[in-house]
Amino acid sequence: MSVTVRYAPSPTGKLHLGNARPAVLNWLYAKRSGGTFVFRLDDTDTARSTEAFAQGIETDLAWLGTTPDVKVRQSDRLALYDAARDRLIAEGRLYPAYETADELDRKRKRARAAGRPPIYDRAALELSDEDRTRLEAEGRKPHWRFKLDGRAVHFEDLIKGEQTVNTASMSDPVLIREDGSYLYTFTSVVDDIDLGITHVIRGEDHVSNTGTQIEIFEAMGAKAPVFGHHNLLTDADGQGLSKRLGSLSLEQLREDGYEPLAVAIMASITGTSLPVEPYESLEAIADKLDFSMISRGSARFDPAELATLNARMVHAMDFATVTDRIGAIDGLDEQVWMVLRENVSRLSELAPLYRELFIDARPVMADEDAEFIATARDLLPPEPWDESTWGAWTSVLKERTGRKGKALFLPLRLALTGKSEGPELKALLPLLGRKVSLDRLA
Fold first, then answer.
1. The motif 'KMSKS' region: which residues (predicted)?
2. Rounded Cα–Cα distance for residues 318 and 320 (Å)
3. What are the domain boundaries of the chain?
4. What is the fold, at CATH topology level, of the domain defined by 367-440?
5. Residue ranges of the chain with per-residue pLDDT less than 70
6. H or E element in which residue 250 lies
7. Ramachandran class of 384: left when φ > 0, alpha when ψ lies in -120 to 50, beta otherwise
8. Three-class secondary structure of residue 400 per DSSP
9. What pLDDT digit, counting tens, does each position of 27-40 carry?
10. What phi and psi, each to the nearest 5 degrees, are found at residue 174?
11. Does the annotation list 243 as a binding residue?
């Protein structure tokens, strides 16, 4: 069977690391299976959907490297939903209900008070044509509910194994609002059928929806796809990552200079049995990650782990990759990169660090170190310099002044760089050169 998966976000906010997880997992599964990755924008919620969010999502997916094979928008597919609606109404599976939100809330409260589950009582099915005419004459508009079979729906989850959802314990879901707009549960099934989706890979918070959707698939005369529900990314306290609060948004991670591959690794590997470590590409992850490796437990995201992973990937980059990513920086060559790279965890830190050390350095010299720095200047060796120069120079200084350890090295670092930490001075000193060093030690 040819595999077709889909990622279907709503353009009602920015993508964050949590909802990047299903995007990456679906892409990886399609790649591993030689299948098709469909990007479907669920943009029928006109009150909250915006074109800015839609464009932002596409930008984020491209940045991650999860380029879709097929792109569709639900707003372009309304005729398809209308036809499916008419079919389900004709077959008696969609029925109009007229209760207001307040009336439904009172019903739920009465059910709880009586010790019954607060599910919809299907009172709308008892309405006669005359009743419906009267309600509509009063100005009421119906919402439309799908009549569930009310049974145990069994399915084999690609990740969680055998699952059962009892739709008898659920209210008949509303598929069409009073204003005629469609809800996700309905349009998603119609799209999955039309687009030939074979596998639905999504968060475990959708497990309970699956029983309902399988019944809708069957009512539409279609075979349900294979479902796989993965664990959700949470923060260190086990709380979900909020889309509307912009928590760890991909846009912010991109602006902060994180590597897209590092972000994709964290989005997919966290909460699996694979170690969080550098991979050379998304394809390399696809070759290793099997869904049997996804934990049944939580997938807790640690920002420090992302920072460490990103730093490891940056430190391993060759100079050609760096210049390809951020462009040329005047004066920064391969030798300078090799010295500075261990001191940056993101490429966005490279240009500022280079400027601080080579262009805008402001030497720092304490009064009590003035005599020591003057001696150091006098003993500065002649060029040519290499990595042995630093050791030879500080050995002479140690013998002449009696200073050692931090008292010897820190004043020199502060005078040469203006910073208390940074690249190894044995490697940095030859790059600064004797003239610059003399000026900074003055």
1. 240-244
2. 6
3. 1-90+155-160+181-316, 91-154+161-176, 319-359, 367-440
4. Arc Repressor Mutant, subunit A (1.10.10)
5. 242-247
6. helix 250-255
7. beta
8. helix
9. 999 999 999 999 99
10. -80, 125
11. yes
